[in-house]
Structures are given as structure tokens and as C-alpha cells.
Design goal:
By secondary structure, this protein is α/β, with parallel strands linked by helices. The protein has 13 helices and seven strands. The N and C termini lie far apart (67 Å).
């Protein structure tokens, strides 16, 4: 049994606490939402843990994570360990690790994949940091990862920052996969020769080279709403797709699929595209092609 402090009990953190407790570990959680929190402050959380302590942070990336790490640095003691399991940018990890290292506190960054299904299925974990610290936290990682061989749901990716870098690339790939499935769905719908689109996509789940968990999730969505009419085609991005493309540029690695998927998300937020109005105007100017006037 390992004792763990968990900061941030949102959709991911709450389910992680439940999975860890089910595995027999003691988890003290803190969240600003008093209804789900086990204590009233970070100070109370730290006081409830026996040294040497391990505190896992699951708060929004950027300043919220940096502020939480800095506050923990003032509350924890030498020999304690902080794990950032949020979607932080990998460049933030060296800063966070340096802040804690000044006080003799260890730091690990963990890319976590699994979403709301992780409580039941387990989470894919990509860890960055010192090997000794990884081994110290391994009972926690083993409880969170999927059942089966450790190497199929867990990786010590490298030094500090490697875990979040790996998760960043993972999410970039996810963008491309989702976009490919989405375009296939739209083409099937547009082709009148296909009369049962959900049945076709469901059939892809067995024996085909495009089967995947993402495809299973699309099937699940279509079972609830066969034509997805209940949704608007407006898609946000969490930032990791942009970071992945920035890294692709920095390393001169071609990433046309990921870039197209990210730009498609941008396009989904435009009710009226200035660029496409310009294209329509140009086609009309050089070829006399018909245009649709505003309001038609």
C-alpha cells in the first residue's frame, strides 16, 4: 500500500483516485470543489501525508500547474516527490523540476491517456524523470495502468520532460486519426449508395486494418445519435496539436496529416470564412463561376 496526495479531482483526477483506492492505496485528494475534496487546502493535504510524501498534480496546464508546483515546493520537505500528470507542455517540466530541486524535492512528469474510460480500463502512462524516482512511484503506476504486461501500458520515456513530450506526440497522432475517421464518415453519408452508415462503421471493428479504440468510440456515438445531428461541428484543441507541429517544424519533420487535422479544427469554428469568400470571389472574377450571395 502506498499513500498518495492527489491535487485536482476533475474528470480524470476523480476517476484516478477511485482506481487507486480500488487497488488498495490510500489517496488523500484536494480540489477547490469542496463536494469532492478530502481536505480544505493544499496545506491540509500535505499535513495528512506521512513523509516521505508523494503528491500527484492533475490541474490545467500552464500557470495553474506552475503555481501549484511552486506552492507545493513551499509546503513539502526534502525527499518528497511531486508528479505532474496533467497535459503540461514539456518545456514547463524543466522549470518545475528546477524549482523543486532547490528544496531537495523530486519531480516526475507523466503523460496520461485514457480519458473518462481510464477508471475501468486503465491509463496509458508515459513517464519522464530519474529512474530511481520512477521505481519509487511504480506501485502507483502499476495500479493506474491497464492490466497485462507493463510495457504495453507504461513507458519510462526518458529524462524530465520526456513523458509530456511523448503524450504531446500521442495527441498529435490522435488528431490525425480522428480526422480520418470523420472524413470517412462524411463520405459514407454523402454517397447515397450506402444506406446504413453506422452499420458499415460498426463492421470495421472486427478483422479490418482500421479497427481501433477510437473507432469503437465512434460506433458508440453513432449508436446514441446515428447521424450525429445532436452535435455542432465545432471542435476545440487542447494545445498539444499545436505544440506537436511546432516541434515538427523545429526538427524539420514533415507532419502533413497532423497539420491538416489541426487546421480542420480551426475551420470548424468559422461560421463564415473570409478565406472561402475570397476563393468564391476569385473564381467568379477569372472564370465567371456562379457565386452564392450573402443571405441566399
Amino acid at each position: 500500500m502506498v499513500q498518495l496526495g492527489l491535487v485536482g479531482l476533475g474528470r480524470m483526477g476523480f476517476n484516478m483516485r477511485e482506481r487507486l483506492r480500488a487497488a488498495g492505496h490510500e489517496v488523500v485528494g484536494y480540489d477547490r470543489n469542496a463536494e469532492v475534496s478530502d481536505c480544505g487546502s493544499l496545506g491540509e493535504l500535505v499535513s495528512a501525508l506521512a513523509a516521505p510524501r508523494i503528491v500527484w498534480v492533475m490541474v490545467p496546464a500552464g500557470e495553474p500547474t506552475k503555481q501549484t508546483v511552486a506552492e507545493l515546493g513551499d509546503l513539502l520537505s526534502e525527499g518528497d516527490l511531486v508528479i505532474d500528470g496533467g497535459n503540461s507542455r514539456f518545456t514547463d517540466d524543466k522549470h518545475n523540476a528546477a524549482v523543486l530541486a532547490e528544496k531537495g524535492i523530486g519531480y516526475l512528469d507523466v503523460g496520461v491517456s485514457g480519458g473518462v474510460w481510464g477508471k475501468a480500463n486503465g491509463y496509458g502512462l508515459m513517464v519522464g524523470g530519474d529512474k530511481a524516482l520512477v521505481e519509487r512511484a511504480m506501485p502507483i503506476f502499476d495500479a493506474l495502468r491497464p492490466e497485462g504486461p507493463r510495457e504495453e501500458g507504461f513507458a519510462h520515456a526518458g529524462s524530465v520532460g520526456a513523458g509530456h513530450y511523448a503524450k504531446m506526440v500521442h495527441n498529435g497522432i490522435e488528431y490525425g486519426l480522428m480526422q480520418a475517421y470523420a472524413e470517412g464518415f462524411e463520405l459514407l453519408e454523402a454517397a447515397k449508395v450506402v444506406e446504413d452508415v453506422p452499420a458499415v462503421i460498426k463492421a470495421w471493428q472486427r478483422g479490418t486494418v482500421v479497427r481501433s479504440w477510437l473507432l469503437e468510440l465512434l460506433v458508440h456515438a453513432l449508436e446514441e445519435d446515428p447521424e450525429l445531428d445532436d452535435l455542432e461541428g465545432y471542435v476545440e484543441d487542447s494545445g498539444e496539436g499545436r505544440w506537436t507541429l511546432e516541434e515538427a517544424i523545429n526538427h524539420a519533420v514533415p507532419a502533413p496529416v497532423i497539420s491538416a487535422a489541426l487546421f480542420a479544427r480551426f475551420a470548424s469554428r468559422q461560421k463564415d470564412s473570409s478565406a472561402m469568400r475570397a476563393v468564391a470571389a476569385l473564381r467568379n472574377q477569372f472564370g465567371g463561376h456562379s457565386v452564392k450571395k450573402a443571405g441566399e
